[in-house]
Amino acid sequence: MQRNMLFLRSFMILVLSCIAIKINLCFPNILSSLKTLPIDGHFNFEQLHHAAKDFGNRYSFLPLAVLHPNSVCDIATTVKHIWQMGPGSDLTVAARGHGHSLQGQSQAHGGIVINMKSLQGLKMQFHIGNLPYVDVSGGELWINILREGLKHGLAPKSWTDYLHLTVGGTLSNAGISGQAFRHGPQISNVHQLEVVTGKGEVVTCSEKQNSDLFHGVLGGLGQFGIITRARISLEPAPEMVKWIRVLYTDFATFTRDQEELTSGESTFDYVEGFVIINRTGLLNNWRSSFNPQDPVQASKFKSDGRTLFCLELAKYFNRDETAVVNREIHSSLSQLNHIPSTLFVSEVPYIEFLDRVHISEIKLRSKGLWEVPHPWLNLLVPRSKIQTFAQQVFGNILTDTSNGPILIYPVNKSKWDNRTSVVTPDEDVFYLVAFLSSAVPSSTGNDGLDHILIQNKRILEFCEIARLGVKQYLPHYSTQGEWKAHFGSRWEVFVRRKSSYDPLAILAPGQRIFQKAVPYSQ
Q1: Which listed residue (161, 294, 321, 417) is catalytic?
Q2: DSSP 8-state secondary structure symbol assigned to residue 371
Q3: Which pairing describes strands 377-382 and 429-435: parallel, antiparallel, or unpaired?
Q4: What is the mean pLDDT of residues 192-204?
Q5: Active site includes 272?
Q6: Signal peptide span per the entry (predicted)?
Q7: Is the pLDDT of residue 16 over 60?
């Protein structure tokens, strides 16, 4: 028995030694092969910690190297090189834009991270006409597209709430904001893409050309290709925005008004909302940006201890339309059932409204509160279940909203293309509910990471037990079984596309959907 154990131990030491030798032999070979690739940009093999961080601030995986490409060809050459190394290589590739992922999705442990912002130098090309559009790099920030577009009097139709994100990043998810009820998400406003597949092929795709890849990449979580260029639909840009907030105490009334505003021809161009639980001095905080319509009544309003629901609206206009727009807004607001004394209005330039979150970012950065853990949870809840969801979550699970905003607003499924990879609930109208929490580092209290994660878990468990048919937006799962449940009947299509465009599972390993060299289960 002792002799067998000694043999087994010696055998294991020999195996591990061989593995170590193989790794040590392969490692310099991999590095030297990357260094000799014919690219215009360059690899960085040191000071890699920046590529091992993201906005979520919860996961950190060091890559082997960071590629700073000067061209799309650099990306294709690198991916093709790894593809040609075959399944024996563990190298993977993650495209990193602004690093705004939440759970390490833009990271590649021991792999190659591509700094997509290096492609920003590729010039934007605006096409003016009856159907205007702009061709932009996948590494371009939406805020830069807005700034350049305004010089032509044009702007994209659909946005995210935060504009300092890359085109490739948001199009790989969906891109949702308060304009989605009318224009759909950002992925519904793209005419054409240029993509580098997991085989290193550069492919131009659209609805009419390589359409399967086109629809797969949109909302595809980076699984089928790296978006290197996109053709974005534009519309005439307004000069100004009427920005309005009103409060409700009754959730059913709040959602009824939201749904009325997002169905048919709405006066407003943007409709969102948020939940306020147990906050004090709420309206006084608004006064720095908004003017109360009735200052006396507003000063008497007390929010202490109550759960309130804020409807947030925006109307775009040009200065010569002010009188007409004011009448339209007055007429529309008169049909709502909000608390009359809580009507607050602001008038700001279009760019200031769209870039509003960046203003908050600057303030938080100055206080050291931006680069903290962000255990966000984003859910898509069917309309028929939103009351049940709200009663349990806002009534029992959450006791306050001091850790960050909770957004809630309806979107119309008719504005989403079901050929894309995004999974939404099976109803014509569903709600985005976004718990945008920030955790205080090292805190063990209600503002600490553990407490927020437990709350998130309780919310997800309730949705599961109550069978609400909820889907995660910006999804994150630990097992392939959970991913299969997320995609449901669309899992087979997702796997087929993976097998077609990235058969070695080289791309976007941080999503944890597929593992390199591990067979996919149908």
Answers
A1: 161
A2: S
A3: antiparallel
A4: 98
A5: yes
A6: 1-20
A7: no
| Residue 121 pLDDT > 80 | no
Query: Angle between the 72-85 and 2-35 helix axes, to the nearest 10 degrees?
Result: 150
Quick check: is 42 catalytic? no
Q: Which of 244, 258, 262 is nearest to 316 (CA)?
A: 244
Q: Which amino acid is at 196?
A: V
Burial state string for 181-192 with b = 16 or more CB within 10 A and e = fewer than 16: bbbbbbbbbbeb
Q: Which residues have CB under 8 Å from 271's CB, separation 6+?
A: 178, 181, 258, 261, 262, 311, 312, 313, 409, 410
**Which stretches within 262-379 are classed as H helix?**
282-286, 295-300, 322-333, 350-354, 356-366
Among 6-15, 306-315, 507-516, where is mean pLDDT lowest?
6-15
Give Dmax over CA atoms of the chain in angstroms: 95
pLDDT tier for residue 471 given thresholds of 50, 70 and 90: very high
Which residue among the candidates 74, 194, 272, 355 is catalytic per the annotation?
Answer: 272
The catalytic position among 100, 183, 215, 476 is 100
User: Is the confidence at residue 281, as pLDDT, over 80?
Assistant: no
Question: Is this structure's pTM higher than 0.90?
Answer: yes
Q: What are the structure tokens assigned to 349, written together? A: 């330039």
Active site residue 127: no
Distance of alpha carbon 295 from alpha carbon 292, whole angstroms: 5
| φ, ψ at 499 (rounded to 5°) | -65, -30
Please check the confidence at residue 17 and state whether its pLDDT lies above 70. no
**What is the Cα–Cα distance from 296 to 293, expressed in whole angstroms?**
9
Cα separation of 380 and 54, whole Å? 23
The string of pLDDT tens digits covering residues 148-192 is 999 999 999 999 999 999 999 999 999 999 999 999 999 999 999
